[in-house]
């Protein structure tokens, strides 16, 4: 989490002016010390909690939005004649657009591709397009985009090697929904199964376990962020009587680590779980990048996996959150229910679904195709290596996983700098996710500013890197101890 810490008093002040709401003081356990930010409590939803011996870390919360919210007010009686309200709203939107342009210039920490142009689709914004129900069954509601949705799903099914008559899927409202659906399918296939997920899995995986009241076992990770299959084997053997539902990360949230799918499958079979497991692959970002990386292991339904999900607003570059969820057709009947009101079948998490999102995805897939995505993947990987090398040349500890465009490095000391560049932080580390819109020029501006700021963070004039060996490995740490060992 990034941003400054909101003290209890500040939250109270912000809420006091909001209608008749009177904010009670925050409980003491929710009041954090800003100075303790880099050290703080690991958020269990980020997969780091659970072990008594884990180091306590403080959570840095963002700013309270009530202090800067735009109120909704009733129009005056003469507004229609004077046009003052229209002029005011136009002014607000113009200022907001200007702020978006500025924020986009300093967008580095989150995996969203901001390099897109959907001007050709503006003509469709006048329609309420809703893909409620099953994508493959037309409902009574006629203003839909199922023909685009199924075309997109067919493209992804081919990518992951599953025949048209063997898959089911839909365009989700976000990557989290894909995980919620994949894990729900696994739970329906194995109602008493235990959910296994590495501690560096996305928080939505642990949200799913709470929502579905599933027993969840957190598995340790290697320093790269990849699942530790030795620990996975140990925990499987402790629960041999129950089937296993496994979340496999095709790129972890913080370090961009790719779990070894083949080793996960081998571990399951060696532990006697043959035909008693369901694998959901969370490929939010790298699920679409990996097929275009040479020598990368394949994510394919030719292997015994149950579902794959990716985000559409990340590498693809959709202007609204969305995603793609694909599973085996044989599994979906356990979830689906016929709905007479829709004249369709319900098998999704949400009821109404954004009908514009499939059109945006269809448009991009047609424009870029496999070759276009391959070029963008190669560009991202090249630029990520450039950033990692420049950071190390500047004496900053940094790590880049082999199949990733997520560069992990020492957390900047200044939270204002973190907010300015919209960096995602966890404990002692931060990361930059190199997307197609992240150019060498943008990285140079960031690097030059970071190096200049570091000279002010250490008043003695000697820049001493903190030790982050526990987070990114000794070979990637630039502290005095590990740097001297490397030499």
UniProtKB/TrEMBL annotation:
Its cofactor is pyridoxal 5'-phosphate. It holds the Pfam family Pyridoxal_deC. GO terms for biological process: carboxylic acid metabolic process. The modification N6-(pyridoxal phosphate)lysine is found at residue 314. Keywords: Decarboxylase, Lyase, Pyridoxal phosphate. It catalyses: L-serine + H(+) = ethanolamine + CO2. InterPro entries: Group_II_Decarboxylase, PyrdxlP-dep_de-COase, PyrdxlP-dep_Trfase, PyrdxlP-dep_Trfase_major, PyrdxlP-dep_Trfase_small, Pyridoxal-P_BS. It comes from the Eukaryota. One of its GO terms (molecular function) is pyridoxal phosphate binding. Belongs to the group II decarboxylase family. This is Serine decarboxylase.
């Amino acid at each position: 989490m990034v941003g400054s810490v909101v003290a209890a008093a500040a939250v109270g002040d912000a809420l006091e002016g909001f209608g008749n709401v009177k904010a009670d003081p925050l409980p003491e356990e929710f009041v954090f010390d800003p100075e303790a930010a880099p050290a703080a409590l690991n958020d269990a939803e980020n997969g780091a909690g659970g072990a008594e011996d884990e180091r306590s870390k403080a959570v840095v919360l963002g700013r309270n939005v009530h202090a800067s919210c735009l109120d909704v007010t009733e129009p005056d009686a003469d507004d229609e004649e004077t046009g003052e309200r229209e002029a005011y709203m136009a002014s607000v939107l113009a200022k907001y657009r200007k702020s978006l342009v500025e924020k986009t210039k300093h967008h580095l920490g989150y995996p969203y591709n901001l390099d897109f142009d959907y001007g050709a689709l503006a003509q469709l914004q006048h329609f309420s397009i809703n893909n409620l129900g099953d994508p493959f069954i037309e409902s009574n509601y006629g203003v839909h985009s199922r023909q685009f949705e199924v075309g997109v799903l067919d493209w992804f099914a081919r990518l992951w090697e599953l025949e048209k008559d063997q898959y089911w899927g839909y365009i989700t409202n976000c990557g989290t929904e894909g995980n919620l659906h994949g894990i729900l399918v696994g739970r329906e296939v194995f109602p008493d199964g235990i959910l296994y997920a590495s501690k560096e899995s996305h928080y939505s995986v642990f949200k799913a376990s709470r929502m579905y009241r599933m027993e969840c076992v957190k598995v340790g990770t290697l320093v790269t962020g990849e699942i530790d299959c030795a620990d996975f084997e140990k925990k499987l053997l402790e629960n041999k009587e129950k089937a296993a539902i496994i979340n496999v990360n095709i790129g972890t949230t913080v370090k961009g680590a790719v779990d070894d799918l083949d080793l996960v499958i081998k571990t399951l079979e060696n532990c006697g779980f043959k035909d008693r497991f369901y694998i959901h692959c969370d490929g939010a970002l790298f699920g679409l990048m990996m097929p275009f990386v040479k020598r990368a292991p394949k994510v394919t339904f030719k292997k015994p996996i149950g579902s794959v999900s990716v985000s559409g607003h990340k590498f693809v570059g959709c202007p609204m959150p969305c995603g793609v969820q694909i599973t085996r057709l044989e599994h979906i009947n356990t979830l689906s229910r016929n709905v007479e009101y829709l004249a369709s079948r319900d098998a999704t998490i949400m009821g109404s679904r954004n009908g514009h999102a499939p059109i945006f995805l269809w448009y991009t897939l047609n424009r870029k195709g496999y070759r276009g995505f391959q070029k963008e993947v190669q560009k991202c990987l090249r630029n990520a290596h450039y950033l990692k090398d420049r950071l190390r040349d500047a004496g900053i500890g940094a790590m880049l996983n082999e199949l990733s465009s997520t560069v992990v490095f020492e957390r900047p000391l200044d939270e204002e700098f973190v907010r300015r560049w919209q960096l995602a932080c966890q404990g002692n580390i931060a990361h930059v996710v190199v997307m197609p819109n992240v150019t060498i020029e943008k990285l140079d501006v960031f690097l030059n500013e970071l190096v200049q700021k570091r000279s002010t963070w250490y008043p003695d004039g000697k820049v001493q890197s903190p030790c982050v060996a526990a987070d990114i490995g000794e070979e990637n740490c630039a502290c005095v101890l590990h740097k001297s060992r490397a030499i």
